[in-house]
Amino acid sequence: MRNVSRIIVGVITIPIVIAIIFYLPAAFFVFLMMVIAGVGLYEYFSLVKTDIAFPWLRELLSLVGVAFPLSAYYYGINGVVAVLFGVLMLLMILAMGGLNGYESSFRNVGALFLGFFFVAVPLSMAILILMSAPHGRDWALWMVIIVWAGDTGAFYLGTAFGKRRIYPKVSPKKSMEGVVGGIVSALIVGILARMFLDTGFAVGEVLILPPVLLVLGQLGDFSESMLKRGAGAKDSGRILAGHGGILDRIDSFLFTIPFFYIYLLLRS
């Protein structure tokens, strides 16, 4: 039943996301990233326990997180850095005013600050990729397709043939066979997508980037699973049927987006 729900959600969301990335004005994509950032941060702050006794802390910080994609749209990477420093100052003020004990002040601030790096900054970089010239939309869509294909191949091939577990303490269902299946799926889809998208990538890039993105996607998955294990939760939330929460759905992008953005910067 859970697999059926996954398929239904995928059939509905994938065409919508592709349309937003490739056809609609960039403002629609920015709005989507703002919504995902706000909900994703709310889930993150729900999983992270701190000693800061401040009313509506999760809601306040989640709302602040919406500023990251917006600043990326208007001011680029400089805007994202500026908001990061603003968030750090805000967290220090909240910590000084709402701590039950000062012994854990920096630990609490660090745990909360990490959420913005983990969730909001990658989503902001996705906007920067989309707005990059001359192939921004093609690059963004190619990356999304690669990650989706790798995740799908890893999940279904791992479920069918997985025997050698990678890190069972954190993610008991992840297997080496699933990773290999994900790499093969990402490679095949990456090569096919290059035929239809104007990425400007050389053949060598198309052969190297999909496996790298797949591995980074798995690392993001493991990181989010570790966060859930620490909180004693199975899913980050319940907003998506068959997928858990928003973080459960975007975890594979949390490391792939920053890497891809930096790669494109260095490449140019």
Question: How is this structure best described in words?
Answer:
Helices cover 75% and strands 3% of the residues. The protein has 10 helices and 2 strands. The chain has a two-stranded antiparallel sheet with strand order 1-2. Helix 2 packs antiparallel against helix 3, helix 4 (67-98) runs antiparallel to helix 5 and helix 5 crosses helix 10.
Largest beta sheet: strand ordering: 1-2
Largest sheet composition: 2 strands, antiparallel
Order of SSEs: HHHHHHEEHHHH
Q: What is the count of β-strands?
A: 2
Helix/strand structural class: mainly alpha
- Overall residue-averaged pLDDT value: 88
Give me some keywords for this one.
mainly alpha; two-stranded antiparallel sheet; 10 helices; 3% strand
Secondary structure elements and their pairing?
Layout: H1 2-22, H2 26-47, H3 57-65, H4 67-98, H5 105-130, H6 136-161, E1 165-167, E2 171-175, H7 176-194, H8 203-231, H9 246-250, H10 256-267
Antiparallel strand pairs: 1-2
Helix pairs in contact: 2-3, 2-4, 2-5, 4-5, 5-6, 5-10, 6-7, 6-8, 7-8
Q: How would you concisely characterize the structure shown here?
A:
With 268 residues, the protein is mostly helical. The protein has ten helices and two strands, in the order ααααααββαααα.
